[in-house]
Design brief:
This protein folds into 3 domains: about 1-55, no CATH class; about 60-320, tm_1862 like domain (pyruvate-formate lyase- activating enzyme, Alpha-Beta Horseshoe), CATH 3.80.30.20; about 325-395, OB fold (Dihydrolipoamide Acetyltransferase, E2P) (Beta Barrel), CATH 2.40.50. The longest helix is centred in the C-terminal third of the chain and has 28 residues, at about 295-320. By secondary structure, it is α/β, with parallel strands linked by helices. It has helices at about 25-35, 55, 75-80, 110, 120-130, 160-170, 185-195, 210-215, 225-235, 255-265, 295-320, 365-370; strands at about 1-5, 15-20, 45-50, 90-95, 115, 135-140, 175, 200-205, 240-250, 270-275, 325-335, 345-350, 355-360, 375-385, 390-395. The structure holds iron/sulfur cluster. Iron/sulfur cluster (SF4) binds near residues 99 and 109.
Length: about 400
Protein backbone atom coordinates (compact mmCIF):
# COMPACT_ATOMS: atom_id res chain seq x y z
CA UNK A 1 0.00 0.00 0.00
CA UNK A 2 1.65 3.29 -1.14
CA UNK A 3 0.65 6.74 0.02
CA UNK A 4 0.41 9.69 -2.46
CA UNK A 5 3.54 11.43 -3.76
CA UNK A 6 5.92 13.35 -1.57
CA UNK A 7 4.61 16.89 -1.15
CA UNK A 8 7.99 18.61 -0.99
CA UNK A 9 9.99 16.78 -3.62
CA UNK A 10 9.91 17.50 -7.34
CA UNK A 11 10.29 13.79 -7.97
CA UNK A 12 7.04 11.86 -8.15
CA UNK A 13 7.35 8.81 -5.90
CA UNK A 14 5.32 7.40 -3.02
CA UNK A 15 6.00 9.25 0.24
CA UNK A 16 5.51 6.15 2.33
CA UNK A 17 4.68 2.47 2.13
CA UNK A 18 2.61 0.42 4.58
CA UNK A 19 2.78 -3.36 4.54
CA UNK A 20 -0.43 -5.37 4.31
CA UNK A 21 0.04 -6.56 7.86
CA UNK A 22 -0.26 -2.94 9.09
CA UNK A 23 -3.11 -1.77 6.91
CA UNK A 24 -5.57 -1.76 9.86
CA UNK A 25 -3.44 0.94 11.49
CA UNK A 26 -2.94 2.94 8.28
CA UNK A 27 -4.72 6.13 9.47
CA UNK A 28 -2.79 6.22 12.75
CA UNK A 29 0.55 5.57 11.04
CA UNK A 30 -0.03 8.23 8.36
CA UNK A 31 -1.05 10.80 10.92
CA UNK A 32 2.02 10.11 13.04
CA UNK A 33 4.26 10.26 9.98
CA UNK A 34 2.87 13.61 8.76
CA UNK A 35 3.00 15.31 12.16
CA UNK A 36 6.56 14.18 12.88
CA UNK A 37 7.90 15.03 9.38
CA UNK A 38 6.25 18.40 8.80
CA UNK A 39 9.46 20.14 7.67
CA UNK A 40 11.56 17.31 6.35
CA UNK A 41 12.30 16.46 2.72
CA UNK A 42 12.89 12.88 1.72
CA UNK A 43 14.32 11.25 -1.38
CA UNK A 44 13.14 7.67 -0.79
CA UNK A 45 9.76 6.41 0.42
CA UNK A 46 9.65 5.61 4.11
CA UNK A 47 8.19 2.41 5.42
CA UNK A 48 5.56 2.82 8.12
CA UNK A 49 4.67 0.15 10.66
CA UNK A 50 6.49 -2.94 11.81
CA UNK A 51 8.23 -3.76 8.52
CA UNK A 52 11.73 -2.33 8.44
CA UNK A 53 13.14 -3.75 5.23
CA UNK A 54 11.97 -3.70 1.62
CA UNK A 55 12.69 -7.43 1.33
CA UNK A 56 10.00 -8.06 3.94
CA UNK A 57 7.54 -6.18 1.77
CA UNK A 58 8.29 -8.24 -1.33
CA UNK A 59 5.51 -10.59 -2.25
CA UNK A 60 6.15 -14.22 -1.52
CA UNK A 61 4.32 -15.07 -4.72
CA UNK A 62 6.66 -16.99 -7.05
CA UNK A 63 5.84 -14.73 -9.99
CA UNK A 64 7.48 -11.88 -8.06
CA UNK A 65 10.75 -13.62 -7.31
CA UNK A 66 13.84 -14.03 -9.43
CA UNK A 67 14.48 -17.43 -10.96
CA UNK A 68 17.42 -18.85 -12.86
CA UNK A 69 17.03 -19.86 -16.48
CA UNK A 70 16.76 -23.62 -17.01
CA UNK A 71 19.91 -25.50 -17.80
CA UNK A 72 19.62 -27.53 -20.97
CA UNK A 73 21.22 -30.50 -19.25
CA UNK A 74 22.41 -31.44 -22.73
CA UNK A 75 26.08 -31.02 -21.97
CA UNK A 76 25.65 -33.42 -19.04
CA UNK A 77 23.98 -35.93 -21.36
CA UNK A 78 26.97 -35.74 -23.70
CA UNK A 79 29.33 -36.34 -20.83
CA UNK A 80 27.51 -39.49 -19.64
CA UNK A 81 29.68 -42.48 -19.03
CA UNK A 82 29.50 -45.09 -21.78
CA UNK A 83 28.57 -47.64 -19.13
CA UNK A 84 25.24 -45.92 -18.51
CA UNK A 85 22.44 -48.06 -19.86
CA UNK A 86 20.73 -45.17 -21.61
CA UNK A 87 23.88 -43.62 -23.06
CA UNK A 88 23.55 -43.02 -26.78
CA UNK A 89 20.03 -44.42 -26.77
CA UNK A 90 17.39 -42.07 -25.40
CA UNK A 91 18.10 -38.56 -24.11
CA UNK A 92 15.68 -36.52 -22.02
CA UNK A 93 15.98 -32.80 -22.76
CA UNK A 94 14.46 -30.28 -20.41
CA UNK A 95 13.22 -27.54 -22.74
CA UNK A 96 11.73 -25.34 -20.05
CA UNK A 97 11.54 -24.91 -16.27
CA UNK A 98 8.69 -23.66 -14.10
CA UNK A 99 4.95 -23.24 -14.58
CA UNK A 100 2.47 -20.35 -14.76
CA UNK A 101 -0.68 -22.36 -14.16
CA UNK A 102 -1.25 -22.62 -10.39
CA UNK A 103 -3.56 -25.64 -10.39
CA UNK A 104 -5.19 -25.62 -6.99
CA UNK A 105 -3.60 -28.89 -5.80
CA UNK A 106 -0.03 -28.25 -6.97
CA UNK A 107 3.01 -26.72 -5.23
CA UNK A 108 5.29 -26.79 -8.26
CA UNK A 109 4.94 -23.12 -9.31
CA UNK A 110 5.82 -22.07 -5.73
CA UNK A 111 9.00 -24.17 -5.75
CA UNK A 112 10.13 -23.85 -9.36
CA UNK A 113 8.82 -20.42 -10.32
CA UNK A 114 7.31 -19.13 -13.55
CA UNK A 115 7.94 -20.74 -16.93
CA UNK A 116 11.33 -20.03 -18.54
CA UNK A 117 12.18 -21.67 -21.85
CA UNK A 118 15.32 -22.46 -23.82
CA UNK A 119 15.37 -21.01 -27.33
CA UNK A 120 14.42 -23.10 -30.35
CA UNK A 121 17.85 -22.49 -31.92
CA UNK A 122 19.70 -23.72 -28.83
CA UNK A 123 17.62 -26.89 -28.58
CA UNK A 124 18.05 -27.65 -32.30
CA UNK A 125 21.81 -27.09 -32.05
CA UNK A 126 22.11 -29.37 -29.04
CA UNK A 127 19.99 -32.09 -30.61
CA UNK A 128 22.27 -32.08 -33.65
CA UNK A 129 25.19 -32.62 -31.29
CA UNK A 130 23.37 -35.52 -29.62
CA UNK A 131 22.62 -37.11 -33.00
CA UNK A 132 26.34 -36.94 -33.86
CA UNK A 133 27.02 -38.76 -30.59
CA UNK A 134 24.71 -41.57 -31.65
CA UNK A 135 21.59 -40.70 -29.64
CA UNK A 136 18.62 -42.32 -31.39
CA UNK A 137 15.73 -40.78 -29.52
CA UNK A 138 15.11 -37.48 -27.76
CA UNK A 139 12.26 -36.97 -25.29
CA UNK A 140 11.28 -33.34 -24.69
CA UNK A 141 10.47 -32.72 -21.04
CA UNK A 142 9.98 -29.81 -18.65
CA UNK A 143 8.04 -28.77 -15.57
CA UNK A 144 5.11 -27.86 -17.83
CA UNK A 145 6.02 -28.02 -21.51
CA UNK A 146 2.58 -26.62 -22.25
CA UNK A 147 4.07 -23.24 -21.22
CA UNK A 148 7.00 -23.53 -23.65
CA UNK A 149 7.86 -20.17 -25.19
CA UNK A 150 5.25 -18.13 -23.33
CA UNK A 151 8.05 -16.22 -21.58
CA UNK A 152 9.31 -14.78 -24.90
CA UNK A 153 6.26 -14.97 -27.15
CA UNK A 154 2.58 -14.18 -26.82
CA UNK A 155 1.67 -17.69 -27.93
CA UNK A 156 2.76 -21.22 -27.22
CA UNK A 157 5.87 -22.15 -29.23
CA UNK A 158 5.89 -25.93 -28.83
CA UNK A 159 4.66 -26.60 -32.39
CA UNK A 160 7.36 -24.32 -33.80
CA UNK A 161 9.98 -26.17 -31.75
CA UNK A 162 8.73 -29.57 -32.93
CA UNK A 163 8.72 -28.43 -36.56
CA UNK A 164 12.26 -27.06 -36.28
CA UNK A 165 13.59 -30.31 -34.77
CA UNK A 166 11.78 -32.45 -37.34
CA UNK A 167 12.90 -30.42 -40.35
CA UNK A 168 16.37 -29.20 -39.33
CA UNK A 169 17.93 -32.20 -37.59
CA UNK A 170 18.55 -35.82 -38.53
CA UNK A 171 17.15 -37.09 -35.23
CA UNK A 172 15.70 -40.59 -35.85
CA UNK A 173 13.03 -40.42 -33.11
CA UNK A 174 11.40 -37.54 -31.27
CA UNK A 175 8.99 -38.07 -28.39
CA UNK A 176 7.09 -35.41 -26.49
CA UNK A 177 6.34 -35.33 -22.75
CA UNK A 178 3.08 -34.49 -20.94
CA UNK A 179 0.63 -32.04 -22.47
CA UNK A 180 -2.84 -30.82 -21.51
CA UNK A 181 -5.57 -31.91 -23.94
CA UNK A 182 -5.93 -28.39 -25.32
CA UNK A 183 -2.18 -28.09 -25.95
CA UNK A 184 -2.32 -30.92 -28.51
CA UNK A 185 -2.96 -28.74 -31.53
CA UNK A 186 -4.03 -29.63 -35.08
CA UNK A 187 -0.59 -28.55 -36.23
CA UNK A 188 1.07 -30.96 -33.77
CA UNK A 189 -1.13 -33.82 -35.01
CA UNK A 190 -0.30 -32.87 -38.59
CA UNK A 191 3.44 -32.92 -37.82
CA UNK A 192 3.05 -36.37 -36.26
CA UNK A 193 1.17 -37.66 -39.30
CA UNK A 194 3.80 -36.29 -41.72
CA UNK A 195 7.06 -37.01 -39.93
CA UNK A 196 8.02 -40.63 -39.36
CA UNK A 197 10.53 -39.48 -36.71
CA UNK A 198 7.79 -38.02 -34.50
CA UNK A 199 6.79 -40.99 -32.33
CA UNK A 200 2.99 -41.52 -32.25
CA UNK A 201 2.70 -41.35 -28.48
CA UNK A 202 0.96 -38.80 -26.27
CA UNK A 203 1.08 -38.52 -22.52
CA UNK A 204 -1.96 -36.44 -21.67
CA UNK A 205 -1.90 -34.60 -18.39
CA UNK A 206 -5.64 -35.15 -17.96
CA UNK A 207 -6.24 -35.37 -14.18
CA UNK A 208 -10.02 -35.79 -14.54
CA UNK A 209 -12.86 -35.98 -17.05
CA UNK A 210 -15.56 -34.20 -15.03
CA UNK A 211 -15.97 -30.48 -15.82
CA UNK A 212 -16.88 -29.44 -12.22
CA UNK A 213 -13.80 -31.22 -10.83
CA UNK A 214 -11.53 -29.78 -13.55
CA UNK A 215 -12.84 -26.34 -12.62
CA UNK A 216 -12.11 -26.92 -8.93
CA UNK A 217 -8.61 -28.05 -9.92
CA UNK A 218 -8.29 -24.84 -11.99
CA UNK A 219 -7.31 -26.80 -15.08
CA UNK A 220 -7.60 -24.87 -18.35
CA UNK A 221 -10.08 -27.19 -20.10
CA UNK A 222 -13.37 -28.95 -19.46
CA UNK A 223 -14.77 -32.44 -19.93
CA UNK A 224 -16.00 -31.72 -23.47
CA UNK A 225 -12.53 -30.59 -24.54
CA UNK A 226 -11.05 -33.79 -23.05
CA UNK A 227 -13.42 -35.90 -25.14
CA UNK A 228 -12.80 -33.85 -28.29
CA UNK A 229 -9.03 -34.27 -27.91
CA UNK A 230 -9.17 -38.04 -27.37
CA UNK A 231 -11.49 -38.66 -30.33
CA UNK A 232 -9.27 -36.49 -32.53
CA UNK A 233 -6.25 -38.64 -31.60
CA UNK A 234 -8.25 -41.80 -32.22
CA UNK A 235 -8.94 -40.62 -35.79
CA UNK A 236 -5.26 -40.25 -36.65
CA UNK A 237 -3.79 -42.46 -39.38
CA UNK A 238 -0.67 -43.23 -37.31
CA UNK A 239 -2.57 -44.51 -34.27
CA UNK A 240 -0.83 -43.02 -31.23
CA UNK A 241 -0.40 -44.68 -27.85
CA UNK A 242 -2.33 -42.51 -25.37
CA UNK A 243 -1.28 -42.53 -21.72
CA UNK A 244 -3.06 -40.25 -19.23
CA UNK A 245 -2.46 -39.03 -15.68
CA UNK A 246 -5.56 -39.11 -13.48
CA UNK A 247 -6.30 -38.05 -9.88
CA UNK A 248 -8.96 -39.82 -7.80
CA UNK A 249 -10.70 -38.46 -4.72
CA UNK A 250 -10.12 -34.75 -5.34
CA UNK A 251 -12.36 -32.62 -3.05
CA UNK A 252 -15.87 -32.54 -4.50
CA UNK A 253 -15.55 -35.92 -6.26
CA UNK A 254 -18.77 -37.43 -4.90
CA UNK A 255 -19.61 -41.07 -5.46
CA UNK A 256 -21.96 -40.00 -8.28
CA UNK A 257 -19.22 -37.95 -10.00
CA UNK A 258 -16.73 -40.81 -9.64
CA UNK A 259 -19.18 -43.34 -11.12
CA UNK A 260 -20.14 -41.05 -14.02
CA UNK A 261 -16.45 -40.38 -14.72
CA UNK A 262 -15.69 -44.12 -14.61
CA UNK A 263 -18.41 -44.84 -17.18
CA UNK A 264 -17.15 -41.98 -19.36
CA UNK A 265 -13.57 -43.24 -19.15
CA UNK A 266 -14.74 -46.70 -20.24
CA UNK A 267 -16.23 -45.14 -23.39
CA UNK A 268 -13.22 -42.99 -24.35
CA UNK A 269 -10.23 -44.01 -26.49
CA UNK A 270 -6.97 -44.26 -24.53
CA UNK A 271 -4.36 -46.96 -23.81
CA UNK A 272 -3.12 -46.49 -20.29
CA UNK A 273 -3.99 -44.59 -17.11
CA UNK A 274 -1.43 -43.49 -14.52
CA UNK A 275 -3.66 -43.07 -11.49
CA UNK A 276 -2.79 -41.16 -8.31
CA UNK A 277 -5.05 -40.82 -5.25
CA UNK A 278 -5.31 -37.12 -4.37
CA UNK A 279 -2.86 -36.08 -1.71
CA UNK A 280 -2.96 -32.68 0.02
CA UNK A 281 -0.04 -30.31 -0.50
CA UNK A 282 0.32 -27.91 2.38
CA UNK A 283 -0.66 -24.31 1.62
CA UNK A 284 -2.38 -25.03 -1.70
CA UNK A 285 -5.92 -23.68 -2.31
CA UNK A 286 -7.31 -27.22 -2.73
CA UNK A 287 -6.71 -27.88 0.98
CA UNK A 288 -9.46 -25.34 1.74
CA UNK A 289 -12.05 -26.89 -0.58
CA UNK A 290 -15.14 -28.55 0.89
CA UNK A 291 -16.24 -32.05 -0.07
CA UNK A 292 -13.07 -33.77 1.17
CA UNK A 293 -12.94 -37.46 0.18
CA UNK A 294 -11.65 -39.87 2.82
CA UNK A 295 -8.10 -41.17 1.99
CA UNK A 296 -9.19 -44.83 1.94
CA UNK A 297 -11.89 -43.96 -0.65
CA UNK A 298 -9.36 -42.05 -2.77
CA UNK A 299 -7.15 -45.17 -2.76
CA UNK A 300 -10.03 -47.53 -3.48
CA UNK A 301 -11.07 -45.39 -6.48
CA UNK A 302 -7.45 -45.38 -7.69
CA UNK A 303 -7.42 -49.21 -7.49
CA UNK A 304 -10.62 -49.36 -9.59
CA UNK A 305 -9.14 -47.16 -12.31
CA UNK A 306 -5.77 -48.98 -12.26
CA UNK A 307 -7.66 -52.26 -12.75
CA UNK A 308 -9.55 -50.67 -15.67
CA UNK A 309 -6.24 -49.56 -17.21
CA UNK A 310 -4.63 -53.00 -16.84
CA UNK A 311 -7.70 -54.72 -18.22
CA UNK A 312 -7.70 -52.42 -21.27
CA UNK A 313 -3.98 -52.94 -21.88
CA UNK A 314 -4.15 -56.74 -21.68
CA UNK A 315 -7.28 -56.79 -23.87
CA UNK A 316 -5.36 -54.76 -26.46
CA UNK A 317 -2.49 -57.29 -26.38
CA UNK A 318 -4.96 -60.22 -26.66
CA UNK A 319 -6.65 -58.61 -29.68
CA UNK A 320 -3.32 -58.16 -31.48
CA UNK A 321 -2.30 -61.73 -30.59
CA UNK A 322 -5.54 -63.26 -31.82
CA UNK A 323 -5.14 -61.49 -35.17
CA UNK A 324 -2.05 -63.61 -36.01
CA UNK A 325 1.70 -63.78 -35.29
CA UNK A 326 2.32 -60.21 -34.17
CA UNK A 327 5.46 -58.32 -35.09
CA UNK A 328 6.44 -55.20 -33.14
CA UNK A 329 8.46 -53.07 -35.53
CA UNK A 330 11.20 -50.58 -34.79
CA UNK A 331 12.02 -51.45 -31.17
CA UNK A 332 14.90 -49.34 -29.84
CA UNK A 333 16.81 -51.62 -27.45
CA UNK A 334 17.94 -49.78 -24.33
CA UNK A 335 18.79 -51.42 -21.06
CA UNK A 336 19.15 -54.85 -19.53
CA UNK A 337 16.34 -55.57 -17.09
CA UNK A 338 15.02 -58.35 -14.88
CA UNK A 339 12.79 -60.59 -16.95
CA UNK A 340 9.87 -62.85 -16.05
CA UNK A 341 12.29 -65.67 -15.06
CA UNK A 342 13.86 -63.38 -12.42
CA UNK A 343 17.24 -63.14 -14.18
CA UNK A 344 18.74 -59.98 -15.67
CA UNK A 345 19.44 -61.72 -18.97
CA UNK A 346 16.84 -59.59 -20.73
CA UNK A 347 16.96 -56.39 -22.69
CA UNK A 348 14.01 -54.00 -22.96
CA UNK A 349 13.01 -51.45 -25.54
CA UNK A 350 10.11 -49.44 -26.89
CA UNK A 351 8.62 -49.15 -30.35
CA UNK A 352 7.73 -45.71 -31.65
CA UNK A 353 4.14 -46.17 -30.49
CA UNK A 354 5.31 -47.15 -27.00
CA UNK A 355 4.92 -50.92 -27.11
CA UNK A 356 7.32 -52.24 -24.46
CA UNK A 357 9.19 -55.38 -25.46
CA UNK A 358 11.45 -57.74 -23.50
CA UNK A 359 13.93 -59.97 -25.33
CA UNK A 360 16.08 -62.68 -23.72
CA UNK A 361 19.83 -62.13 -24.28
CA UNK A 362 23.07 -63.69 -23.20
CA UNK A 363 24.81 -61.33 -20.77
CA UNK A 364 27.72 -60.91 -23.21
CA UNK A 365 25.31 -59.76 -25.94
CA UNK A 366 24.11 -56.72 -24.08
CA UNK A 367 26.66 -54.17 -25.35
CA UNK A 368 26.19 -55.28 -28.96
CA UNK A 369 22.40 -55.20 -28.85
CA UNK A 370 21.99 -51.93 -26.95
CA UNK A 371 20.95 -48.95 -29.09
CA UNK A 372 19.93 -51.15 -32.03
CA UNK A 373 16.54 -50.82 -33.67
CA UNK A 374 15.00 -54.24 -34.30
CA UNK A 375 11.71 -55.83 -35.29
CA UNK A 376 10.47 -58.32 -32.71
CA UNK A 377 8.27 -61.36 -33.25
CA UNK A 378 6.20 -61.56 -30.09
CA UNK A 379 4.10 -64.42 -28.81
CA UNK A 380 3.01 -63.63 -25.28
CA UNK A 381 3.04 -60.82 -22.77
CA UNK A 382 3.88 -60.30 -19.13
CA UNK A 383 1.97 -58.10 -16.68
CA UNK A 384 3.69 -56.12 -13.94
CA UNK A 385 0.83 -55.32 -11.55
CA UNK A 386 2.94 -53.04 -9.35
CA UNK A 387 3.83 -50.63 -12.15
CA UNK A 388 0.77 -51.25 -14.32
CA UNK A 389 3.11 -52.13 -17.24
CA UNK A 390 2.36 -54.82 -19.76
CA UNK A 391 5.27 -55.93 -21.95
CA UNK A 392 5.55 -58.17 -24.97
CA UNK A 393 8.06 -61.05 -24.82
CA UNK A 394 9.70 -61.98 -28.11
CA UNK A 395 12.60 -62.67 -30.41
CA UNK A 396 14.23 -60.31 -32.88
CA UNK A 397 13.69 -61.14 -36.55
CA UNK A 398 15.98 -58.76 -38.44
CA UNK A 399 19.49 -59.52 -37.16
S1 LIG B 1 -0.17 -29.51 -12.17
FE1 LIG B 1 1.23 -29.01 -13.86
S2 LIG B 1 0.23 -27.29 -14.89
FE2 LIG B 1 -0.75 -27.43 -12.87
S3 LIG B 1 0.44 -26.06 -11.56
FE3 LIG B 1 1.36 -28.07 -11.35
S4 LIG B 1 3.03 -28.12 -12.85
FE4 LIG B 1 1.68 -26.42 -13.39
Amino acid sequence: MALGSDRKSKVDFPAAVIGNQNKDQAAKLIHAHITSNENSTQDVPVILGSVSDYDELKSRHPMDREWAMPSSGIDEILKLDEASSTYRTRAFIKIQEGCNSFCTYCVIPYGRGPARSLSIDLIVEKIEALVKEGVQEVILTGTNIGDYGLDWSDKLQIDELLEAILTKTALPRLRIGSLDPTEISDKMIDLMEKHEAFCPHFHVSLQHVSSPILKLMKRKYNGEQVQACLFKLQNMTRKPFIGMDYITGFPGESEAIFNESLELLKSLPWNRLHVFPYSERSGTPATKLPGVVRPEIRKERARILQALSLERMTRGFADVRSAGEPLVQGVLLEGNVRGPDGSREWISGYSKNYQRVLIPIGSSDFQTKKNRVVDVKVSRWVVDRASGDVSWLGETTNE
